[in-house]
């Protein structure tokens, strides 16, 4: 059984900050995910962050004195990414180990990454975080030892110099390029076959994996935990009409996602950016629903995902169905207790609004063509004309004239 540490959170609330309370509560949840019990939260209102000590030295001293000499505190957690000099200043006053928001998130990612690619991406982010902190005295790597913020490279030879760490970064990038080339070939193959891809995106712990399992009849790992899914999962699904497409589960978003993680996980996030349709999943029972919605929308903009047709699934309505937030885009109120076909029908109805209607008359002598239309398009109506020996089919097809492509293929 892992040891539970005690920690406090310190945050500076500047005028630029939207909602410091939701941020520190989220940081509390993040800290608890790595076995740190938060015994206090301290917020200082300032016009700007102190470049030397993050918060004011007087504020830090008062905070430490408020706990007395007998109160054991293992960690001071800072609600922002801080520099090595700020870390040292806080550590000198608080007399505790000091970690920032980025380190906590990196620690969680290191625990959740299961695939080789995910583990490489986490290590890359951790090393990129460390490099600027090796200058001069920086963080004394020889005394980090075990504990929060030291998983992954923290358990290897952290005494190595910047040159060796940079060499390791190059090695990881090369390995990730191989992974990305495999993904690129897969994407090219899918695009050639014109397979429609739908991706679940959303705030971490919104219930994406649970919905993925319900819709894809899968058994993907799911847990009521932050960043339970780091490695994208993909399954083929069949909509009520018989139309086949693929569904992907993706890493959750979060407020102030560290830039090193955005960069390191770019290829993973691009899996969602390469989709034809998006399902934006929101925890309908969350107290910070608006913040979660805005965070995901901002990251979608950052990743150029806004043009992709998206529908919002307000999940966990079985927990709380009293909140009905209504964004200016298609949305539905769902939960994983609903029949899977009901969830898939909502998705299918949405997809049809972004597809092209077709009307085809097919000879019965070409059953493969009829089969392909049923499989690769959403068939609305089909009638058999015995006299003419034809099949009349109407429905919806993805942009790109699939029915025409199928027709041409069968005429070859």
UniProtKB/TrEMBL annotation:
Per UniProt, subcellular location reads as: Cytoplasm
One family from Pfam that matches here is GTP-bdg_N
Alphabetized, the UniProt keywords read: Cytoplasm, GTP-binding, Magnesium, Metal-binding, Nucleotide-binding
Give the Hflx-type G domain ranges: 196-316
Family annotation (InterPro entries): G_HFLX_dom, GTP-bd, GTP-bd_M, GTPase_HflX, GTPase_HflX_N, GTPase_HflX_N_sf, P-loop_NTPase
Q: What gene does this protein come from?
A: hflX
Which amino acid positions bind GTP, per UniProt? 202-209, 227-231, 249-252, 315-318
Family as reported in the entry's similarity comment:
Belongs to the TRAFAC class OBG-HflX-like GTPase superfamily. HflX GTPase family.
Q: What does this protein do?
A: GTPase that associates with the 50S ribosomal subunit and may have a role during protein synthesis or ribosome biogenesis.
One Gene Ontology cellular component:
cytoplasm
Q: How does it assemble?
A: Monomer. Associates with the 50S ribosomal subunit.
- The residues listed in the UniProt record as binding Mg(2+), with positions renumbered to this chain, are 209, 229
* GO molecular function per UniProt: GTP binding; GTPase activity; metal ion binding; ribosome binding
Specify the protein name.
Answer: GTPase HflX
| Listed cofactors | Mg(2+)
Domain of life of the native organism: Bacteria
């Amino acid at each position: 059984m892992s040891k539970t540490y005690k920690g406090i959170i310190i945050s500076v609330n500047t005028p630029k900050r939207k909602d410091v309370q939701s941020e520190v509560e989220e940081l509390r949840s993040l800290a608890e995910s790595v076995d740190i019990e938060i015994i206090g939260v301290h917020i200082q209102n300032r016009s700007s962050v102190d470049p030397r000590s993050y918060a004011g030295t007087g504020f830090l001293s008062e905070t430490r004195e408020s706990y007395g000499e007998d109160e054991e505190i293992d960690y001071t957690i800072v609600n922002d990414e801080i520099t090595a000099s700020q870390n040292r200043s806080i550590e000198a006053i608080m007399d505790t180990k000091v970690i920032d928001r980025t380190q906590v998130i990196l620690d969680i990612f290191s625990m959740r990454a299961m695939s080789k690619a995910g583990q490489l991406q986490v290590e890359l982010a951790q090393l990129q975080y460390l490099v600027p902190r090796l200058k001069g005295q920086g963080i004394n790597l020889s005394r980090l030892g075990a504990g929060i913020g030291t998983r992954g490279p923290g358990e290897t030879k952290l005494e190595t110099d910047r040159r060796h760490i940079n060499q390791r970064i190059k090695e990881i990038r090369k390995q990730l390029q191989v992974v990305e080339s495999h993904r690129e070939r897969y994407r090219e193959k899918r695009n050639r076959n014109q397979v429609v891809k739908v991706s679940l995106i959303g705030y971490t712990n919104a219930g994406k994996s649970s919905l993925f399992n319900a819709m894809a009849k899968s058994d993907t790992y799911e847990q009521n935990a932050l960043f339970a899914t780091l490695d994208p999962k993909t399954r083929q699904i069949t909509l009520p009409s018989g139309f086949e497409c693929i569904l992907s589960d993706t890493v959750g978003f979060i407020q102030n996602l560290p830039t090193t993680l955005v960069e390191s996980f770019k290829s993973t996030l691009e899996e969602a950016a390469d989709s034809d349709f998006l399902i934006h999943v929101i925890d309908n029972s969350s107290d910070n629903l608006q913040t979660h919605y805005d965070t995901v929308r901002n990251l979608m903009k950052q990743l150029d995902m806004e043009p992709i047709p998206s529908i919002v699934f307000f999940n966990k309505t079985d927990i709380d169905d009293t909140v009905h937030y209504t964004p200016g885009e298609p949305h539905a109120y769902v939960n994983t207790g609903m029949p899977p076909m009901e969830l898939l029908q909502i998705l299918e109805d949405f997809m049809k609004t972004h597809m092209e209607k077709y009307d085809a008359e097919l000879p019965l002598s070409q059953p493969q063509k009829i089969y392909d239309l049923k499989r690769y398009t959403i068939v609305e109506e089909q009638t058999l004309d015995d006299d003419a020996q034809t099949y009349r089919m109407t429905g919806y097809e993805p942009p790109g004239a699939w029915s025409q492509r199928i027709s041409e293929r069968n005429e070859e």
